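User: Hi! I have a protein structure encoded as tokens and I'd like to know what sequence might fold into it. I'm fairly new to this, so please keep things simple.
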């Protein structure tokens, strides 16, 4: 991913990202891809689909459709008016499609190439090396929303829930919860500076910055949780961590009022369940496991056992 940085910076800061990237120079060794004879969006999609397929690029058609649609100012190829799909493109548009497609040939994820991606209806900026949110994670957000809406407010609480997200990445989970729960507030923690600053930028883009606090923190470091104490007990914790933070759950347990929602690897629910049973002192119980849209057990709901 490192090698994409300079290329992307050049692409994204070049003049008129949607209308052409004349400021961007091809790197040496870039394959020369002739465009002669191709002029419409449909022809370009077919051309690049064929090139991607030949070079073993995954999701060849989707990739070329997203790139061409993006250059024409649309989110999806299907949403382009039929006339726009067949009329000739400008030389700048052709050039831009060629440049973005060259990035895809180097296996850059399409979300980084476009520089933005939708998550639960929110358009989020994407930039390497920050994790690209997966579609399954939308289901985790749905589950949290269901639970929050169903549960009575905590006694004495004046605002909506105070949510802690561990490992916020681009802010996808935190910001979609904030946008759906107008009284909620979120503390978004990540150890990556790039993630913290992207979450900050996305919060501003979506005008949600007043209800989110970004905390750069490595939660595996000794005593790191003390940085979160000024906010008081949180109502729930949500996380799509790279692994389940056993040690961190121990430290966090007394500070959670109610719930933890985790996205995990399908092999982990059983392990987490056994581990929680072996630690009754934590007062935490795995109350439900949900499957994702592929039927894999991916989401855990852990709750305090006591009153
Ligand atoms: C799988 S990504 C999830 C990002 C985002 N929540 C999403 O679903 O798109 C995990 C995130 O956890 C962060 N992370 C990993 N280890 C961490 C740690 N020890 N402390 C804080 N954040 C951590 C990573 O930087 C990364 O942004």
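Assistant: Happy to help. Inverse folding works backwards from shape to sequence: for each of the 307 positions I chose a residue that suits the local structure. Here it is:
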């Amino acid at each position: 991913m490192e090698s994409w940085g300079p290329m992307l910076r050049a692409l994204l800061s070049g003049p008129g990202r949607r209308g052409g990237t004349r400021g961007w120079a091809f790197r040496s060794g870039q394959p020369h891809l002739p465009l002669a004879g191709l002029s419409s969006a449909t022809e370009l999609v077919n051309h690049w689909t064929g090139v991607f397929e030949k070079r073993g690029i995954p999701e060849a058609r989707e990739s070329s459709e997203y790139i061409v649609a993006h250059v024409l100012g649309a989110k999806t190829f299907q949403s382009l008016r039929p006339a726009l799909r067949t009329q000739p493109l400008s030389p700048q548009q052709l050039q831009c499609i060629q440049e973005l497609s060259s990035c895809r040939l180097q296996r850059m994820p399409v979300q980084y190439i476009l520089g933005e991606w939708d998550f639960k209806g929110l358009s989020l900026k994407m930039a390497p090396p920050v994790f690209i949110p997966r579609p399954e994670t939308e289901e985790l957000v749905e589950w949290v929303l269901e639970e929050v809406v169903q549960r009575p407010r905590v006694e004495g609480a004046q605002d909506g829930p105070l949510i802690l997200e561990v490992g916020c990445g681009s802010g996808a989970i935190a910001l979609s919860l904030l946008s759906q729960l107008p009284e909620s507030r979120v503390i978004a923690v990540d150890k990556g500076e790039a993630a913290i600053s992207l979450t900050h930028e996305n919060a501003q883009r979506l005008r949600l910055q007043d209800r989110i606090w970004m905390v750069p923190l490595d939660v595996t470091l000794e005593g790191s949780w003390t940085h979160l104490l000024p906010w008081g007990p949180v109502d729930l914790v949500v996380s799509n961590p790279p692994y389940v933070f056993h040690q961190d759950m121990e430290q966090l347990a007394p500070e959670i009022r109610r719930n933890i929602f985790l996205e995990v690897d399908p092999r982990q629910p059983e392990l987490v369940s056994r581990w929680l049973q072996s630690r009754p002192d934590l007062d935490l119980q795995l109350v439900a496991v949900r499957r994702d849209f592929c039927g894999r057990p991916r989401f855990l709901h852990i709750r305090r056992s006591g009153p």
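A useful reference point when you look it over: Confidence is low (pLDDT under 50) at residues 1-33. Feel free to ask if any position seems puzzling.
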